[in-house]
Amino acid sequence: MNNSNAYKLYTEQSGITATPGELLVMLFNAELKNIKIAILNIKAGKTVDAHNKIIQAQKIMDELLLSLDFKYPISKELQTLYLFIKRELISANIKKDTEKLEKLLPLITELRDTWEQADKLARKQV
């Protein structure tokens, strides 16, 4: 098995065995990675590559929006945050604005860290 196949198998199995909280953390990590690569691509003049990474980040936000369960009051606030991030991604993509993208990184990192802590607490209660 070559390295790319091993990595693909690992990531597929990680997704299968991950808790819902771990899956959210994986999504946020992918979101951060896509934005960071987009920033680097914009700075390197690779606008098509940057566009593609920002589109991937937007798709992740769509998945996060779809995952919200509105029987919990926090979901409305998360929806507001996720929609804000998506709007900023769209605007940054149109303008190829690295500053706008960089301003999203701390917010997304905080969301990821919060979900990670919530998942740890939930697993301790089980």
Write the layout of secondary structure elements.
Elements: H1 3-17, H2 20-43, H3 47-66, H4 74-95, H5 98-125
Helix pairs in contact: 2-3, 2-5, 3-4, 4-5
Mean pLDDT: 90
Helicity range of the residues? over 70%
Total beta strands: 0
CATH class: Mainly Alpha
Count the DSSP helices: 5
**CATH fold category name:** Four Helix Bundle (Hemerythrin (Met), subunit A)
Instruction: Give me the strand/helix succession.
Output: HHHHH
Whole-number total of structural domains = 1
Distance between the termini: 37 Å
- Based on secondary structure, the structural category is mainly alpha
Verbal overview:
- The structure is a single chain.
- It is elongated, with a radius of gyration of 16 Å.
- It starts with a helix and ends with a helix.
- The model has no long low-confidence stretch (mean pLDDT 90).
- It has one domain: Flagellar protein FliS (Four Helix Bundle (Hemerythrin (Met), subunit A)).
- The protein has 126 residues and is an all-alpha fold.
- It is 87% helix and 0% strand.
- Helix 2 runs antiparallel to helix 3.
